[in-house]
Amino acid sequence: MAVFIIHRATRGEGYQFTLESSQGEALLTSEVYKDFESCWHDVEPIRIYAPLESRYERVNRLHEYTFWLKAANQKLIARSARKYASAASRDHAIERTKWEAPLANVRIEK
């Protein structure tokens, strides 16, 4: 089963979450939040918006393909956890995110 992993940001300044697929692939990553509670709170909107095609923005830059997940107000709430070599690979990751995010568990790594 997919899992949202809440962890310290890479530089140790705040928290962020990553959505990991049931196969262990990082699909989404969040912005860095100042505190744990804010990070925890923003997992739920991902579950709500992830299944909706209209919430995705596909980004193509110099043969690198990524995506953004946006809220109803168009605010960026998460981005793809990696860059893809093709649009097809990116689109496959979006489809997996749509299916896996709504039911993903949450794991906390403090």
Automatic annotation (TrEMBL):
It comes from Siphonobacter curvatus. This is DUF1508 domain-containing protein. Pfam families: DUF1508. Signal peptide: none annotated. Residues 64-106 form the DUF1508 domain. It comes from the Bacteria. InterPro entries: DUF1508, UPF0339_domain, YegP-like_sf.
